[in-house]
Amino acid sequence: MEIARHWRLKEQRYNLVGTACPKCKQKYFPPREICPKCGSEMNTGYAFSGQGEVYSYTSIYEAPSGFEDTAPYTVALVRLEEGPLVTAQLTDMGDTQPEIGMPVEMVTRRLRSDGDERGMLIYGYKFRPLLK
Amino acid sequence: MSKKTEVIITGIGQIPVGEHWETSLRSMAGKAMRKAIADSGMMKPQALYVGNMLASTLSKQAHLGVLLTDFSGLIGIEAETLEAGGASGGSALRQGYLAVASGMVDVALVVGVEKFTDTIGPEGESALATLTDADYESVHGLTVTAQAALLECRYLHENQVPADGLAGFPLTAHENAVGNKNAMYRKPISLETYQKAELVCSPLNLYDISPTADGAAAIILTRREFLSSRYQNPVIHIAASTVGSDTLSLAERADPLWFSSAQASIEAAYEKAEIKPEHVDLFEYHDAYSIYAALSLEAAGFARRGHGWQLAADGAIALTGQIPCATLGGLKARGNPGGATGIYQVVEATLQLRGQAGANQIGDAKTALIQSLGGPASVAVTHILVREDE
After folding, report:
1. Chain centre to alpha carbon of residue A100
2. What is the mean pLDDT of chain B?
3. Same domain membership, residue B204 and residue B173
């Protein structure tokens, strides 16, 4: 079990907190400590709005362990409105087929289960079609 | 670099790629190593560099360097493992090259080995997924195949490529593997077979994905001054060895559809070898997925952005085409044994340059370009091999 590891990422998983460069203002998710653009050190958190659109997507039929029960599932690259791309599952799709450009918003869902019924449940961000 | 310090490939060895249920990792590697040593005229290696990606997970075995020297009668020599994801083989070759070129090592043995069948099912997928960003990719169920699928989905969309537009890559690979007795799938496939294949990770179907498999391949490197006067084969030297890198995760790229590490390392290699793309007689690209082949052709300057797929559709990558690729089956049909893959590429390119590629021989091949990718070109290791006329 990787308890500390998942706990450590709580700000990212639940609140989509990345970093913003104090110098060039570029925003990053996930957080980085050095701005790849200007080389400045970054230690200011930045919470993304969670609004974005689908940049690309794929449905996975051969799942790795921890995901067998949910296959097939759809993973997307979502272009956040602030700029960065983020890797996440699409959820609450109902009969909606994913497509490039589809507006989506962040929600919190169970990402995976670690081990058996005594194992850890890991929660974090997924994206659903924008509610009208 | 002066002629004197040139690094020469004097020995090559490989075992067939496939499911070797009856053979252990150490035995597979040992066989390839002995073949390479024998092919070199029994040169005595002073160092072993191992290219391996996932033995710690797949076989619960780390510390491969001494495992292999110990098992293969080489106790006492320097030994270590290089890991750079799918480019581990290319990375081990690079290490061997650096050691020999620097003069610190006179004869180096480089082996690539991967033992996928020690772990089967979802655990194998999970092991591969450790090559992605654990905190921000695999925890969302992203797999290495899904990374390629995300790229292909966007590529098809941006470039208005037909759904079967990338078929030419696996079709060519399978056709070329027929003539390679070490290949995993020695059967041609038809366009219709491709079109009807089941989706594994949309839009990728079964034939867009190279099969992971067991394999081991090895080479011997030395400097010209140590070449025996009885050396029989044409002399093949490494004219360039370069590495480029990008972000580990796909999402953090400014431009995911451009393999910038592949471009950077290839451009540096062209410059180092003092050649241009039109001088390349064959390109052993890293076709782990059809889309990687297309993007690699674009990064290498053989096609304009968004047009790499057309080289496959037009037959330009066939053995008789303008830029033959995957000449002995590539990752798709020879098979993709992880950390061994980069060494298979070198062995195959050496066979081509020596004129020993049999039915698949490219006429008078003199210059070979080889590229080994880790992830979606998160790292790109490029080598140029040249046959010397004399």
Report:
1. 17
2. 96
3. yes
ipTM rounded to 2 decimals: 0.96
Residues B147 and B151: their CA atoms lie apart, in Å, by 7
Strand segments (E) across chain B:
7-14, 47-51, 78-82, 107-114, 199-201, 204-205, 215-223, 236-245, 282-284, 367-374, 379-387
CB-nearest partner of A87 from B121, B142, B145:
B142
pLDDT of residue B1: 44
β-bridge mates for residue B382, sequence order: B242, B371
Total structural domains within chain B: 2
The range of the structural domain enclosing residue B98 comes to: 3-120+212-226
Which residues are registered as beta bridge partners of B219?
A: B12, B110
Bridge partner list, B385: B238, B368
Sequential pLDDT tens for chain A (132 residues): 688 989 999 999 999 999 999 999 999 999 999 999 999 999 989 999 999 999 999 999 988 888 888 889 999 999 999 999 999 999 999 999 999 999 999 999 999 877 667 778 899 999 999 987
Mean pLDDT of B276-304: 98
Is there a contact between B346 and B219 (Cβ–Cβ < 8 Å)?
Answer: yes
User: Which class would CATH give A3-129?
Assistant: mainly beta
Confidence at residue A74, expressed as pLDDT on a 0 to 100 scale: 97
Q: Measured between alpha carbons, how far is residue A33 from residues A36, A44, A60 in Å?
A: 9, 9, 32
Q: Name the residue in chain B with its Cα closest to that of A121.
A: B139
Q: Are residues B69 and B111 in the same domain?
A: yes
Q: Same domain, yes or no, for B8 and B96?
A: yes
In this structure, are B269 and B216 located in the same domain?
no
Residue B95 neighbours by CB under 8 Å, 6+ apart: B49, B82, B110
Average pLDDT over residues B345-368: 97
- Which residues does B contribute to its contact with A (CB < 8 Å)? 121-123, 125-126, 128-129, 135-143, 145-146, 149-151, 153-154, 157, 199-204, 249-253, 256
pLDDT on residue B2 = 47
Question: For B274-303, what is the mean pLDDT?
Answer: 97
Same domain, B219 and B352: no
Domain end marker among B203, B226, B249: B226
Phi/psi-derived region of residue B336, left when phi > 0, alpha when psi is between -120 and 50, beta in every other case: beta
- In this structure, is residue B324 part of a structural domain? yes
CATH of the domain at B11: 3.40.47.10
Residues B299 and B173 in one domain: yes
